[in-house]
Design brief:
Elements (H helix, E strand, L loop, with lengths): L5 H12 L15 H44 L9 H84 L29 H4 L7
Length: 209
C-alpha cells in the first residue's frame, strides 16, 4: 500500500477541514475577470477530482459485487463466478487511488494559488467594490424617487376617478369641487396635497381602485 506523502495529507486535510473549498460556488462568478478565471479553473479541478473519486468507488463496488456473487454461489451450490485476480485488483485500486490523491493535491495547490492571488488583489478590489456600492445606492435612490412618483400619479388618478363617479352617479348629493374632494390614502411616506389630511383623506378610503 502506498504511503501518503506530507503533501497528500495536507491536501486531504485542507479539503476535509474546509468543505466549502470542494464546492463549485466557492469563488464568486462575474465579479472580476481574475476571479472568473480562477473559478473556471477551480470547477475543472473539482470535476477531475469527482471523476477520480467515482473511479475508486466504482472499483470497490465492482469487487464487492463479485465477492457477494461468489458467496451466494457457494451457498446455493452453483458454479462460482469468475473473480478479478487479487493482483489485478490491487493494481487497479492503486492506480485509481493514485489518481484521486493527485487530484486532491492539484486542487489543494490551486487553492493556495487562488488565495495568494486574492490577497494580492484585495485592496484594488475593495476600492472597486466601494465605487460599485455608491453606484448601486444611487440606483436605489432613483428607484425610490420613481416609485414615489408613480404612487403620487396613481393616487391622483384615483382621486379624479372618484370625483367623476360622484359627480356623474350620485345625483342627490351636493356637488363637490375637485380640489375639495379627498382621495384614498396614499402609500405611507407620500406627501399629500395641501388640505388633504386628517379625516378628509379617509372619507373615500374604501373606494375601488
Amino acid at each position: 500500500m502506498e504511503i501518503p506523502t506530507d503533501q497528500q495529507r495536507r491536501g486531504e486535510r485542507l479539503l476535509r477541514d474546509n468543505p466549502a473549498l470542494a464546492k463549485s460556488n466557492w469563488l464568486p462568478e462575474g465579479t472580476f475577470p481574475e476571479l472568473t478565471e480562477l473559478r473556471e479553473r477551480h470547477v475543472k479541478l473539482l470535476e477531475d477530482r469527482a471523476v477520480a473519486s467515482r473511479a475508486c468507488t466504482s472499483l470497490r463496488e465492482k469487487y464487492e459485487a463479485e465477492d457477494e456473487a461468489q458467496q451466494r454461489s457457494f451457498q446455493n451450490g452453483g458454479k462460482a463466478p469468475r473473480l478479478t485476480p487479487e493482483a489485478e485488483r490491487a493494481d487497479a485500486k492503486r492506480e485509481a487511488e493514485s489518481r484521486l490523491r493527485a487530484a486532491n493535491i492539484a486542487l489543494a495547490e490551486f487553492i493556495d494559488e487562488a488565495v495568494v492571488a486574492i490577497q494580492a488583489q484585495e485592496s484594488a478590489w475593495i476600492e472597486l467594490l466601494k465605487q460599485r456600492a455608491v453606484a448601486a445606492d444611487e440606483k436605489v435612490e432613483e428607484a425610490k424617487r420613481l416609485l414615489d412618483e408613480a404612487h403620487r400619479d396613481r393616487w391622483a388618478i384615483k382621486r379624479v376617478r372618484m370625483w367623476v363617479e360622484r359627480t356623474s352617479e350620485n345625483k342627490q348629493a351636493r356637488h363637490v369641487a375637485y380640489e375639495q374632494l379627498a382621495g384614498p390614502p396614499p402609500p405611507r411616506g407620500i406627501e399629500l396635497p395641501t388640505g388633504m389630511t386628517g379625516a378628509a383623506v379617509e372619507e373615500y378610503a374604501g373606494s375601488p381602485a
